[in-house]
Amino acid sequence: MIQFLLNNTAIKTREAEGGTVLDFVRYNKHLVGTKIGCREGDCGACTILVGELKGEQMVYQSMTSCLMPLKNAHGKHIVTIEGLNMDALTPVQQAVIEEGGTQCGFCTVGFVVSLTGYTMSEKAPTYDNAIAAIDGNICRCTGYKSLERAAGRISQSLEARPDADPIEWLVGEQFLPSYFLDIPKRLKKLAIKQFPLPNGTSGKESVFVGGGTDLFVQKPEAMAETPITNLFDQSAFKYIKEKDGFCYIGGASTAEDLRSSPLLNQAFPKMHDFMKLVSSTPIRNMGTIAGNFINASPIGDLTIFFLALNAQITLNHHGEKRTLHLKDLYKGYKTLDKHPESFIEEISFELPEPNDYYNFEKVCKRTYLDIASVNTACFFRLDADKRIKEVHLSAGGVAAIPFYLHKTREFLLNKTIDPDLLKEANEVIQSEVSPISDARGSADYKRLLLRQLFYAHFLEAGCVEEVVG
Prior knowledge:
The protein is α+β, with helices and mostly antiparallel strands. Helices cover 31% and strands 20% of the residues. It has a five-stranded mixed sheet with strand order 2-1-5-3-4. Helix 16 packs antiparallel against helix 17 (419-432) and helix 17 packs antiparallel against helix 18 (443-460). The model has no long low-confidence stretch (mean pLDDT 94).
């Protein structure tokens, strides 16, 4: 039995757990304000708010309901546009209308939901944060300037909002209906039990599912008929911690968990910028690190990021643990050194030392919110003589698998960085990779991109001033 609160209504359902929240709210509950758009998590027309009780406080995040399996709604507060409506327009709705932020209206509900989620967050009420909150919403009519004005206006209206637990203030200022005040008590009263911790097997007919952002794009019809083993809500697999100089990350941690982690931001000062290149806010709120690895996309951003840290993964199979390097997981296109009934429980890597260097680069047709044409990451450590003591390199979009550059690493070890060395290293890189021409660029173009991004790692580090040719 799946139980949750949908707006102001308690839900108990035995509907297919692999069906999407989008289809449930529209076809079962006839709440048609949530729109069907791309069904791939790109357009934001189906955006909902997902609230979880953490301690005594509700925490809400925006998510795309077209990719969210119904089972992942269990124990949560699901908010559609109908759950935000009151007798009068809210300040968010009023700002969008008065600034001319709606024309055909199809995308409007998604923008309103995302901006309302922004008002409920503990992030500072700034224009930049408001714009970031709608980075997963697409509008085909307005040209965005009117929506940007609305976002700025909403930010100004939040100047008096308290920094912590703002729900009561938002209700008082008519941003939210009053029933939001009772949600924590109602969730506790339901005494919703989380699904049991998987013991290493999903069952013969079941599929392990994290956030669903890959599976529900690839095969939504099949998933609607498939029982799922929920990994997304397993608190035992949601952590980012340090021990003895190593970082340990639970497999159910999301891209947003990585982006907001104090530990990772300390270890990687550009972490916020790196993760901004990974999809949009609603997808970062859903997509898990283990899911990105297991999807085995040759251009998976998180996979490329962690390959260059020489990360290890721990697989759980029927309760038995096996640890291997991430680079050894991939045996061929979508072929893994993994039993089908195993799941990634943990990721670990050695934290960089103060003078180590790490960089992640990505090029795609759009700067943000797009799949990479080529992405690459690099870690290196120099000795006292400025020679490369340790180095790890990865590249996506240039092979059938997320690619760890073994030969280039061996070539660079114990050498001193200069432009000539980098040009020679590029020749080794080009001999290792085997890109193909596709919708994201020709093979020659991808080789050129990889060369330039490889040089960029060392230019960004200040190791060289320029590399010509």
